[in-house]
Every structure is written in C-alpha cells, then in structure tokens.
Design goal:
This protein has 220 residues and is α+β, with helices and mostly antiparallel strands. It has 5 helices and 13 strands. It has 2 domains: 93 residues, Ribosomal Protein L25, Chain P, CATH 2.40.240; 115 residues, Beta Complex (RNA Polymerase Alpha Subunit, Chain A, domain 2). A hairpin with a 2-residue loop joins β2 and β3.
Length: 220
C-alpha cells in the first residue's frame, strides 16, 4: 500500500520552453520531460531525472511526490500517462496528475499470478491469462502496486473471472466487468477432438499447431 512517507520523491525543474526540440535537449541531458496538471491549477511543464523515474515506474510505483527546484511545498501526483518512442521501448514523456491522499480514484492495477495450478497436471493443459490488470476504485493512500492472485486451485476447464478476485481492502471497488476472464485452463485434447481426421493429416501433428496458436493469443 502507498503511504505519504513511502511515495518516492522526484526532484523537478520547470521547463521554460516546450516543443520537440527542447524536449530532445532535456532527454539528452538525462532528463524526462513531463507535465503536472489537475486540481484546478494550471498545467506546469517540468523535467525529472529520467533513470530515477523510469526505475520507480518499472517497480510499479504510481504515486510520487514532486519537489520543485526552489520551492518548499511538495506536490503529490499520480502517473496518468506515459509516451514511448516510435520503437515502444523508451519512455519519452510523462503526465502526472495532482492528487490528495484522501481522494478516491479509478486506476488500473497489474495482477501478479502465484501458485501452481492443479489443472496444469492434466495432459495438454494450457494456462491462458487474457487480462494482466484490473481497474479498481480506491483511496490514493491505499493504491496497491499490484494485486496478487493465487491460481493453485484453478483446475482444468475452470475460469477465474475478475469478480472472483479478492481485493486487498473491503473499501476497494472493482470497476472492471466482473465477468471479464482473468485466467483459465484450456485442455488441448478438447481442441483436438473437434479436428477431423482429414485435417490432422493435412496439418501433420495437430498438437504443436494448437500450442503455437495459444501462445500467440496469450502474448497479445
């Protein structure tokens, strides 16, 4: 859970000039261009330390305290949007929204799967997890970095829906459709039974075909 004391502090400088050319200069100097907005105040263009900020984001941090150069007051913000370069690898810009620790927000939280599913002991069983995050409403102070979901009891043919997940606190509310599939165990033999003998001969071994298809689905 996040507490005001544990939120990482990002030291920031005001960017007097904006635009692509100046953003490139900021990045070359090791900075990450960003904008802070919200709470009825004017948006402010800032620069924060790129390596430090990206490290926090990679760990799953969403809430930060921003210490502006030359100012004593600290602003609490939540990460709202990240822009990546054309390769989709490097973060080139960040949007931060001002928040209070007591206000309620809607936010997407990653799911961490733990436990070995019973169902995977079945021959030809595959674990599919089409959703790796869910949207919840909670107090800023209670925002979790991730939600742990134990899949030990998930058996072959079983489906875990978003509504089955126990949220860390009773005050948290699920925004994602409760019927959305989070994880399920699909058995390949069920897929093979549908295939006719002719198709099996044409495709050679049916099993590897099915495996690759399932893996691609999972990676989307």
């Amino acid at each position: 859970m996040h507490h005001e004391e544990t939120a990482p502090v990002l030291n920031a400088t005001i960017r007097e000039r904006t635009g692509t050319r100046y953003c490139t200069r900021v990045r070359k100097a090791g900075g990450l261009p960003a904008v802070v907005y919200g709470h009825g105040e004017a948006p402010v263009s800032i620069a924060v330390n790129a390596i430090e900020t990206v490290n926090h984001l990679t760990k799953g941090e969403k809430i930060f305290k921003i210490q502006m150069e030359g100012e004593s007051n600290i602003q609490v913000v939540i990460i709202k949007d990240l822009q990546f370069d054309y390769l989709g690898t490097n973060i080139v810009h960040a949007d931060f929204a001002r928040v209070d620790f007591d206000e309620r927000i809607e936010v997407r939280v990653p799911i961490h799967f733990v436990g070995d599913c019973i169902g995977l002991k079945t021959a030809g069983a595959l674990l599919m997890h089409p959703n790796n995050e869910i949207e919840i409403e909670c107090k800023v102070a209670n925002l979790p970095s991730f939600i742990e979901v134990d899949l030990t009891e998930l058996d072959a043919g079983n489906i875990l829906h978003a509504g089955d997940i126990t949220l860390p606190l009773s005050t948290m509310k699920l925004i994602t459709d409760p019927g959305a599939i989070v994880a399920q165990i699909v058995v390949q033999s069920q897929v093979e039974e549908v295939t006719t003998d002719e198709e099996v001969q044409v495709e050679g071994e049916a099993q590897p075909e099915v495996t690759t298809e399932k893996k691609e689905e999972e990676g989307e």
